[in-house]
Structure formats: structure tokens, C-alpha cells
Design a protein that fits this description.
Largest sheet: 5 strands, mixed
Strand content: 15-25%
Strand order of the largest sheet: 3-2-4-1-5
Radius of gyration: 19 Å
Number of strands: 8
Structural class: alpha/beta
Distance between the termini: 19 Å
Helix content: 25-40%
Number of helices: 6
Amino acid sequence: MPKLFPSVLCALACASASAQDFPNRAVRLLVPNAPGSSIDTMSRIVAAKLGDALGQPVFVENRDGAGGLIGVEAGKNAKPDGYTLICASNGSMIIAPLLKKTPPYDAVADFSAVGSFAVTPNVLIVNPELPVKSVKELIDYAKANAGKLNMATAGVGSQSHLSGVLLMTMAGFDSLAVPHKGGGPSVNSVVAGRRTGPSRRRPR
């Protein structure tokens, strides 16, 4: 399975704060992902360091759901005073809007990029009770047990969803994609061996 490296960036929601006294109060860092996700974890590290540098607290607010659309749209609608930042990935800034007929925001026109601070690879994991030890064994097992495997994703249109669909397409097997509200909840479902939740077959 190919590795995808999403650039994680901080986007300033319509930065127009006065340079003379900025910041003079707490700054909000919106994270369009669930608590416990990789982006959430990195955001909290950045928030702590940024708070030290600015001399004001920077607090993280998780606004997950819809592949990141909810959190990023909340940033777009925030007061344009420079006190709202968004920590987003290319999943929420690029992929998710492209899947909507009428995107709720324009990643280029609606935001000003501040910088990129991390890259993360996608990782394929399975429940330890599944009798496979490699990607090849997983593919063979999925083909031999058609319709019996679920694929937990961070949400419809997320990188984990599209990567999983790409793997299934290239390898020639099918499974049920179960969207979650983020990477953390999807991993929890895999560890717990849960097969419940809304399911959706991969597009043909």
C-alpha cells in the first residue's frame, strides 16, 4: 500500500488582527479531528509551544466530523480578528471539499496559511485476532472471506478511507467501509474488534 504524507498546517482564519497589541488574550486552535487522533496530538504540542511564544494561552477545540468539514467551516465563520487558528491536514482542506457539490469553503480564498509543522504516514493495522501477519496475508484472507471484513475509516472521504479503497481496488477484494468521527475512534473500533456502525461498500 503506498504511503501518503499529508502536510499538516496551521491556517489563520481571516487574519486581520492589529499588530500593535496582538495577542492580548487567549487564542483558539480549532482541530477538525477527534481527540486522540494524530493531528489532535500534534496540535496540542504546538499549542503549548505557541502559547509560550505568544505569552498567551492557546487552547485546542476539537470540532470533528464530516471528514474535517465541520471544524474548518467553523474556522471560516470565526470572527476575522486573528484569534482563531485551524490545524488542518490536506484531508480536511483539500480532499473533503472536493467531495461536495457545493463546498462550504475555499481552502485558498478563505484562509491565510501560516506554516506546516509535521508530516504523517498512513499505517495499515488489523485486530490481533485476525489470522494475518502481512499485507499479502490480509489480501488473501479478504478474498477468501468475501464480505466478512470491515474497514474502519476516519470518515467518508478521509485519507484512510481513500487509501483503503485504493488498496481494495489494486488488490481486487472488497470490504465494508465503516466511517468514524476521526482516526482515534476508528483505531479503537479495530482494537475492540467491533463490526457495528454505519457501513458503506466501496464505490465500484
